[in-house]
Amino acid sequence: MPRPLRRTKSSFLVPLAITATAAAASFALWYLYSDDGTPTHPTSSGAVDSGTERDREHRGRRGRERDRTRDQPTTSSSTSQTAAPAQPRGQPVPDYKPSIALVVRESSSASALLSQLPAPLSLARANVFVLLYAPELGGHPLSDSNNSDSSGEGRVYRQARALFAKDVPREMVMPYTDRKSLVPMLKQIAPECVFVEGALVSGEGEGTVGAVLEGKWVGGLVVANVGGEVPEEEGRRWGKRCRVVEVGEVAEEWRERVG
What is the CA radius of gyration of the chain? Predict the structure, then answer.
């Protein structure tokens, strides 16, 4: 019978050396081509899949960058604009203030028309002028030579001055002595509305309303009847721009037209 083959030590060592050499060469190649030289875990086949690991790390970095971007506060176009200053509370002051004229006559008693108005007058929404017809004026109230005891300051003049605050110029009350002066004065002021005593546009003052309205520089007239000086039908003849009311209705007209 043939003799059995005997395995020597070299027959075991040669394959083992070949396997170890191949593993060392694979490890060296992986280390050479990796990004940072840090070993990664080998795959089940013993080879290192360095490309897959790099892809994972790259995706991880991108994910972290997206998270940081998402966490940062965003500024929209609406919030980046400078906020408008808050409006002050209370009633807004209009850009345009109309002028209002009050036409009354000096008398020994108080003016019924002026008695219907609030005091002091608010000049925030309108400029108010009082035209005082005083044919018996002994001295001009606006003259510096006059004092509080002068005959130039009659009862109605003092009443008109009391409608304004103390710091309002005295020129807001303007006396005149000639009836014909009223129309030129109103033309100069060009008021939005005129409140006038009925006695000043009737009798000797007849024709005043027509002259004022024809000029187109007065918005409208309110004639206050104290003793029925102006019949209501005559007021209708003057048209829609003129309204004849009883003196007790002046306060309501003032609220509607001036505020």
Answer: 51
